Amino acid sequence: MATLHDILTSDARVREGDPALWEKLDRNRVRCYACGHCCPIPEGQPGVCKVRFNHGGTLYVPWGYVAGIQCDPIEKKPFFHAHPGALAYSFGMLGCDLHCSYCQNWVTSQALRDPNAVSAPLEVDPELLVKDALAQGAKVVVSTYNEPLITSEWAVAVFRQARQAGLLTAFVSNGNGTPQVLEYLHPWIDFYKVDLKSFDDRHYRELGGRIQPILDTIRALHKMGIWLEIVTLLIPGFNDSDDELRNLTTFLAGVSPDIPWHVTAFHQDYKMTSPADTRPADLLRAATIGRDAGLRYIYAGNLPGRVGDLENTHCHHCGEMLIQRYGYSIEEYKLTLEGNCPACHAPLPGRWSKKFDGQIAASPFLPHGRAQLVKILSQP
Ligand code: SF4
Asked: What's the Rg (C-alpha) of the chain?
């Protein structure tokens, strides 16, 4: 029986990497620039992510499948300042360049490393994905669930189709980028969420990365004008000291005080089963530190109704409540058509629809008629 590795390295599931994202080295080696590892890869070997590999002195990359599709409220990604209420058609492939023990998407992200992570790829092409996104009423197509940087060529293929169909595009990513991959993505991406997991390089090394490429990516995305929101999953004892949170939020506020920061509650998952779950009081403490550092839009996530006013958006100038939320649900929306505060007319930073049309769904769902979709996706 073919293994997952056999399936993912078959001719139909790979193609040559985009020339912008790799180069040839000596002795038939290649260097990949799709993520901050910048792996030098010997002939016959994969990179750290296990999904991009060197065959005959050429870099091959994942193509033509998804491991998961789901319709999410955009608030779940989470984007709070980008088309509130929009349905985000979300797809993911397999693999990751990090190996976080608390990963909440481990079934797809660690599929190539962990035999317990079983996730079957579905054959698909970009036209059918986008057609299905339109049929569900989606406004945004999002590459998520695995680390999208390592499958950037496929994401861009889908995003090209999405743009032609009038849809917006987004990445939900760990932010371990390079200048090369960000330039490659720049024309095709509207919103970018970076998961800033810590502000300590030693913690990043435990997760298999380094902090510097992530900080560089955050600065670069902001400079490029791609709408950026940041998430930090607050893990008791790992990244929640006052010092670390002060340094993290001071850095973000230095890039821009208008970048929304979502500080979200950890629950025990995957291999991280020892720290206690994050309490509402921990999120409130982090929010206070972030506010003192100068951030204007701070949200507390994963504990709906238990974090006071930290699910809502307020005007930074006059304090008017502009968007009221409960979890992913929008309870009230008061922005003007131009995205301004109705009380003082100050603009709210973000990307806004001309009109708020309500939400198709305030909780995730699988595409309607998924069995039929899978059948369509599986056609030769
Ligand atoms: S995506 Fe990152 S981990 Fe994978 S081969 Fe390229 S540089 Fe290495």
From this structure: 20
